[in-house]
Amino acid sequence: MGWVLVISAIVGVIPESGPHIIFVMMFAKGLIPVSVLVTSSIVQDGHGMLPLLSYTPKDAIYIKLFNLIVGLAVGTALYMVGM
């Protein structure tokens, strides 16, 4: 399940909201724990990143990197607790 947590974070880097639905549905069916869903939710920002990406790609990358680090940290902590 640790790999699924990492994959959810990597998929969350995609600047669209569609891929996040996969993890929501998997959580709804009981296939993944809440830690994976939280990781995906923190990293994923939907279409909100697209305007910034067109204006300043460097800042968009910094924000995505920050979201990725925070998402993995929080998700890993929840996973270690057993959630």
TrEMBL record:
Pfam families xrefs: ArsP_2 (PF11449)
Organism domain of life: Bacteria
UniProtKB keywords: Membrane, Transmembrane, Transmembrane helix
Membrane-spanning segments: 61-81
InterPro entries in the cross-refs: ArsP_2
Record's protein name: Selenocysteine protein
